[in-house]
Each structure stands twice: as structure tokens, then as C-alpha cells.
Amino acid sequence: MNRTSRLFAFGAFLLLLAACSLPRGAALQSEVLDEAQADNPTFQVVAVTRANMPAVSRWPATGENGHYHWLNHTGGPSSTMIQVGDRLDVVIWDSQENSLLTNTAEKQTTLKGIEVGPNGAIFLPYVNEVFVRGLTPAGARARIQSQMEPIVPSAQVQISLVQGFSNSIDLVAGVQKPGSYPLPSRNYSILSLLAEGGGVSQQLRNPLVKLIRGGATYQIPAAELYETGARNTTLRPRDTVIVEEDTRTFTALGASGTEDLIYFPKLELSALEAISLMGGLSDNRADPKGVLVLREYPHSAVRLDGSGPNLPQVIFTFDLTSADGLFAARTFRINPQDTVLATESPVTQAQTVFGLIGTSFGLARQATTLSN
User: Fold this and answer.
1) How do residues 331-362 score in pLDDT, each as one tens digit?
2) What's the CA gap between 20 and 32, in Å, rounded?
3) Enclosing domain of residue 119
């Protein structure tokens, strides 16, 4: 073997060794799924098609905020109810000459700012306590006048209500004017509160509306709340309303336009939409037959009858080169905390190797030319 041939053979050998460990931006699909062929795999592989999509879509939801629980509109009377901490201004009219409560010149007396005590009652001179909690202002006026009749038979009563802390709603964040708002009636809706607060901030990404009532929290996407009047729930005293951004994310990895945590821009996200948010598949690197979605289910979701996953960890695979795979990816829903992986195409690796070998031939030809 002459010197040129030995040089070419040695160069080609080095290139082939280097090709075996070429750096890649993502794994091959065969590498990721290799363990699935083992006797005891630690994860399940599901090739998603239109045929099995109905069954897969019924598997339990994963990730935080998988479901939204909300209260529908119930409605109520337009009047408000008196609560502990409210204050009443009571005006008593009496035309009798020797009235116990009024003087001869004015024929009326005003008792301002009488607070409703913890027991739900107010104190009036000569009458003692009058229980008014849970009554409307009209009902409270009738009760006060009824209890005054034995003492001042000709008296007439007028009251006005100033609502206190216990008869208000807190609008905490996500609007132009957060604060504490009095509850004007028992028919006061959450959309009325949001409007009074200046509306949901336009800067929020996919805003969610949360309602905290007692020990329970309810939430709904703002877009869905505005969509139908059936969601316009009626508020109660001491409700707290918070508007905040949707914090759900999925992870984008591999041969795509971006590798990052990506926020959900809307309530539901399909696999095709997720790929679009990732910047699409890389033309020169990605394997369109090897788009994977990695998901973890709780052990309680594992089923052996097909109504759930066989193992907690599941890899869903998509073939985007076929109409069946495209339609399946269009229907498949991405869950919060999923990982969407665009695997590397094996053709890319082969092309790189062939390019290196072609380069070695060029080097060999140059070496031959130089040796001559």
C-alpha cells in the first residue's frame, strides 16, 4: 500500500470513529424508546392514532389546574341584608307634644352610626336591643317601629344603611382598581364587581378568575366567564376575588425552534398547537415521525383494563408524516407539566457521516496531488 492510500485509510478510520460520537441537539426516537422492549419496562409507550384517541382522552387529567370548578349564576333579591359591623342611621318622627324622643320644635331625632353588634342587634333608647342582622333595611325599619309602638305609639321610623367590613367583597388583584367593595344587594354578580374594579387587566396572559369563599376556592378562565351569563355567579359577603395569570406550563425540548418552559396561552392546548408554540420542528434536524409527549400519572390512575395507563410514566408518540397522525395530534390535549420532545432524525446523522467521508475523500485527493 502506497503512502497516499495509507493516509486515506487512516483519515477515513478517524472520521468514522468521530461519527460514532457526533454531538447532537436531541436524542433519536429509538434511543428514547429502547427500554420499552425490555422484559420489565419502567414506562409505557402509546402510539397515538385516531382509533385510540377516544380512549386516551378519557384517561385522568394530570398537572395542576387540570379541572376548573365554578359556581353558576343563582341570582337573588335586589335588596341587601344587614350584617354585623354595619351602621344604621335611625330617624324617629313623633308629633306628640310630650314625646320621649323628640323635642317640641323639631318633632324628630336622629341617631347616627348605630353599629350592629356581634349579637346582630342595635341599641335604641327606651327600647333596648333590636335584632336586625339578616334583615333588609325595610325589614329592619318595620321591626324597629313595631318595638317602639308600646312606648311611642305615634312614632314613625326611617333608617339608612352604611355597610361595614362584614358586608363587603375584596377584589385583590388583576384589575385596575383593587380594593374592598360594599355588597349593594344579594343579586350582585362577579361581572359587576370586575366592571366596578375597572375590568380585567389586558396585560395578563390567559387570565384566571378565582373566587375564595370560606374554605373553598373556585376558578375559571376569564374568557369562559365572559362567554356566558350562566357563569356570572352571585357574590356573598366576605367573598374574595383574585384575577391572575395562568401559571400552567409544558416543557419544550429537542429539535424544535425553542427549548424552554412554555405557558399555556389558553384553556386547552393540542399537541399540534404545542409544536407551533415551540417554533415548529427543525427542518434539518427533527424527525417528524418521532414527536414524543412524556407524561407522569399518579399511581392511583394506573389501570389494567385500558381505562387508564398501565404504568405511571407514559410516552405518547406521534407520526406527523401521515394524515392519521396529524389528526390525532390535533385532538390530543397537552396537560400541564408535560414534556414535548422533538427527536433527532436518523437521516441527519447519516448525512453528517457521509459529509465527513466525502471530506476525507477530498483530503485524500489533495494529498495525492501534493505527493505527485
Assistant:
1) 999 999 999 999 998 865 544 444 444 544 45
2) 18
3) 87-162
